[in-house]
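F.,

This is the one I mentioned.
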């Protein structure tokens, strides 16, 4: 197996100059440098919570060894601070309402031919709001296994765990931005960009 690529580090948390409609590739990595999920979308804008990306149904969702076309619309929130990225859904056909990926090394960089890349390192732990199961913390076993196998620093393990507990409470209580804020961004994305999937 070839060596893992270096994960982009010390990237800014804000995409200076990003404009609505810009291509945004959400690119996740694993802590050991191996590539993880890649999801394209369109930049919608920003609010006090962070930067919103519309990911329409029909967009390619891929990682090494797997790829599929998204069945439903979603918006991704890249927050201005914190150790997570959020994906929000409102389609009854989708079991998830909110899916938060605990992450580190979150940051933006410009693409060579226009658009942006929102990079992050996925830490395996997830906070999920599901129609069938409610709000829960997912993949704790994977988090523990990868912490040992990939050598997560103890301070990072503690901070990710604390962030997960904070988010679990915030999602469960419906605190902003988990209070329906995403609904308006989904409506904006559908109005402006539903005819531009990433095919």
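My design for it:
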């Amino acid at each position: 197996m070839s060596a893992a690529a270096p994960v982009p580090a010390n990237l800014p948390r804000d995409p200076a100059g990003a404009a609505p409609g810009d291509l945004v590739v959400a690119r996740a990595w694993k802590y050991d440098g191996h590539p993880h999920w890649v999801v394209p979308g369109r930049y919608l804008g920003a609010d006090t919570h962070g930067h919103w990306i519309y990911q329409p149904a029909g967009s390619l969702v891929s990682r090494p060894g797997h790829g599929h076309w998204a069945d439903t619309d979603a918006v991704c929130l890249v927050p201005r601070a914190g150790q997570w990225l959020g994906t929000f859904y409102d389609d009854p056909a989708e079991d998830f309402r909110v899916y938060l990926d605990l992450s580190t090394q979150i940051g933006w960089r410009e693409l060579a031919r226009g658009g942006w890349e929102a990079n992050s390192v996925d830490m395996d732990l997830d906070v999920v709001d599901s129609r069938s199961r409610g709000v829960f913390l997912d993949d704790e076993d994977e988090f523990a296994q990868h912490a040992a196998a990939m050598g997560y620093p103890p301070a990072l393990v503690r901070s990710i765990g604390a962030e997960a507990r904070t988010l679990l409470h915030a999602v469960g209580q419906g605190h902003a931005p988990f209070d329906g804020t995403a609904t308006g961004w989904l409506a904006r994305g559908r109005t402006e960009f539903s005819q531009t999937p990433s095919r």
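The chain has three helices and ten strands.

Talk soon.
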